């Protein structure tokens, strides 16, 4: 998706990523990395007593995994610019396969050589349910004119 220059994007451009299955190892490694051992994610017996009846992936883990589902071309993408309106709308369970759909919803020039591309991202699982939605902003180079 982010392998083209700012002026090559159009409002309404859409794309879909490949899928990625969430594993128990993902949850354990993310808990260790982040220090977030909340029992809804890491304790089977605790999770059985919740409305979800099983462990769920951390919301921030789901967002982190989505960064690996997007192609960011070095030299085109300058930097991650931010994220707005993040919502977790359904649980992501161990064994769910998630993918992203994206739609360009805003383009803002930042001078003569860069711009911010805003993409409405939906994280969906194999059932089609949306598990997270957010607006991602990336600072992208414009083509260099020689």
Automatic annotation (TrEMBL):
UniProt domain MaoC-like: residue ranges: 16-124
SUPFAM superfamilies noted in UniProt: Thioesterase/thiol ester dehydrase-isomerase
InterPro entries: HotDog_dom_sf, MaoC-like_dom, MCH/BMMD
A family per Pfam: MaoC_dehydratas
Family annotation (PANTHER family): BETA-METHYLMALYL-COA DEHYDRATASE, MONOAMINE OXIDASE-RELATED
Protein name: Dehydratase
Species per Swiss-Prot/TrEMBL record: Psychrobacillus soli
